[in-house]
Amino acid sequence: MIRIFGDSISGNCLKVKWAAERLQLAHEWIKIDILKGGTRTDGFLALNPFGQVPVVQFDDGRTLSQSNAIILHFAEGSDLVPEDAFERAKMLEWMFWEQYSHEPTIAVRRFQKHYLKKSDDAIDADLMAKGRRALGRMEMALISNDFIAGGTALTLADISLLAYTRMAPEGGFDLGDFPAVHAWVARCELELGLAHLHEVRHV
Known about the structure:
This protein is an alpha+beta fold.
């Protein structure tokens, strides 16, 4: 059975959990409390020297970290990965962009505001500006597409981007300003069997 080491406050960890559940992979979720230094213990660092969650361990003892690498490994050969080479590349394009331009702004501002309880004045103003630009980029892509990579079905790109977009209001981002993104979040939640978190908590 796959062992998933993660913390549910982390969108990167939730991606892995959602992918495993969608693919009906037998797995055990092992809670690592990142706020209490769970990724800095000797035991965890022996498992993952990067000192980050998520990390998965397979029956043969091999481990894999980095959320998008994990979900790609999980989903090889499934309907979450397009068969067409170009469509697959477009999926990967969005997944790379998520880690480079989306997560470092939206997730970081969320963590500082929601978990570190920093005031807006104490948070780098660029995080809000860059996060809104990221949401705007998604908005443009989703105006004419149901799913982020441009296809007609959910892919790993949607799972990758959903995690922190869904929780963006906790970082002060108003998804009401991005109606196509707002609708896409609800669409992905329905596909994955998730509660409509942002609508219930933030609207």
